[in-house]
């Protein structure tokens, strides 16, 4: 898909992919990937092609790969020189108070929220979670445990069937206690806007709102 979530702002609900995680993640033998930057998209696309070619050479169908990439605010990279191991979440910042997880273009909001919290002395672990229906429990589970189970997710997708729901389900299945705030689209169709940033503001998909959600969790202890 050439754009994720609300990225096709001007064309409105009919062109916005706000339900497609839920739809594609349920397809058997399908890996859904939402890279956060161009370098990550390139790395995973090459790896997916190599894996598909190896499966075909072995006479197997193998898995299918669905990519959701960015259209606006899509940088070349977030961390210069970063590597992108297949199937792994990427830790962009480490802390011990709360976990902030984003995917796709909204990883930028998680990074910004981490900076807002750091200015107040709150140490957040910021994670880029590109493999939507293949949750990296080793990385995410360890971070959630280290942060006392406090977790905030952000995505420009419906809350039902989205990245946050899949992360929470995987943690629960693994017996990892967590208290969670999920920022996403609350059961509404998209709408038109000049740029996606206007829609992020409308739905509360901002770094400020993510930082607020983290503060709410921290206030509970």
Number of alpha- plus pi-helical segments: 7
Radius of gyration, whole Å: 17 Å
Structural class: alpha/beta
The figure for the number of domains is: 1
CATH-derived architecture: 3-Layer(aba) Sandwich
Order of helix and strand elements from N to C terminus: HEHEEEHEHEHEHH
CATH class category: Alpha Beta
Q: What is the straight-line distance between the termini?
A: 40 Å
Mean of the pLDDT scores? 93
Total strand count, please? Answer: 7
Detail the poorly predicted runs.
none
Strand order of the largest sheet: 3-5-4-6-7
Overview of the molecule:
The chain is α/β, with parallel strands linked by helices. The protein has a single domain (13-219), classed as Rossmann fold, CATH 3.40.50.920. It is built from 7 helices and 7 strands. It has helices spanning 20-25, 38-57, 107-118, 137-146, 163-173, 196-202, 207-219, and strands at 30-33, 64-67, 90-93, 98-102, 124-128, 150-158, 179-185. The strands form 2 sheets. Strands 3-5-4-6-7 form a 5-stranded mixed sheet, sandwiched between helices. A two-stranded parallel ribbon has the order 1-2. α3 (107-118) links the parallel β4 (98-102) and β5 (124-128). α3 (107-118) packs across α7 (207-219). The radius of gyration is 17 Å and the shape is globular. It starts with 19 loop residues before the first helix and ends with a helix.
């Amino acid at each position: 898909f050439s754009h994720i979530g609300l990225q096709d702002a001007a064309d409105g609900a009919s062109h916005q992919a706000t339900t497609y995680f839920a739809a594609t993640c349920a397809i058997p033998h399908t890996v859904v990937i939402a890279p956060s930057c161009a370098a990550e998209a390139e790395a995973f696309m090459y790896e997916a092609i190599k894996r598909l070619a190896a499966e075909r050479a072995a006479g197997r169908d193998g898995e299918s790969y669905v990519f959701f990439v960015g259209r606006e605010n899509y940088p070349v990279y977030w961390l210069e020189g970063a590597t992108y191991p297949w199937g792994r979440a990427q830790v962009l910042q480490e802390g011990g108070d709360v976990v902030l997880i984003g995917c796709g273009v909204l990883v930028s909001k998680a990074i910004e929220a981490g900076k807002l919290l750091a200015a107040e002395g709150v140490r957040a672990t910021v994670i880029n979670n590109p493999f939507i229906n293949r949750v990296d429990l080793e990385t995410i589970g360890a971070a959630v445990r280290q942060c006392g189970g406090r977790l905030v997710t952000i995505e420009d997708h419906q809350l039902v069937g989205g990245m946050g729901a899949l992360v929470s389900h995987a943690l629960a299945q693994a017996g990892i206690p967590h208290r969670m705030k999920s920022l996403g689209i609350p059961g509404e169709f998209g709408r038109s806007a000049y740029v996606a940033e206007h829609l992020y503001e409308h739905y509360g998909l901002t770094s400020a709102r993510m930082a607020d959600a983290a503060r709410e969790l921290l206030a509970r202890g």
